[in-house]
Amino acid sequence: MTSPRLLLAAGTAAASLVAIGPVLANGGPAPSSAPLRVGTTGTSTLVVPSDAAMLSGTAWGGPAVASRIRLTIVRVSDGAKLFIGSLGSFHGLPVEAGTTLQVRIDRPAAYASLQAGTVLRFVA
To answer: Which of 5, 13, 77, 120 is in Cβ range 3.0-4.6 Å of 36 for a Cys bridge?
Structure first.
């Protein structure tokens, strides 16, 4: 019989390994064609590609944590806030080609070690 403590430790280690991967880049422009995996605090600038009509988001990780991580999307040209909400509530946003967007993630310090985020990608 396997010890419950051993199973808990193995599950915690596995969850830590799953979280390793690309995250939101601080300050620099992100490639527009590749999906952007976000979940840590930071800001990134995206330029909408010519063939994109929507910015979509797919949440991953714990829904309780994703509901507490704030996502803000701002159109840089006029400062308009296009989305303000949680990672868990973002599903899609219509966009226009060539538009520059600033994506900001604010994660409360109390949830820094918990795993949750979203994958943003442009779709036609």
So the answer is: 120
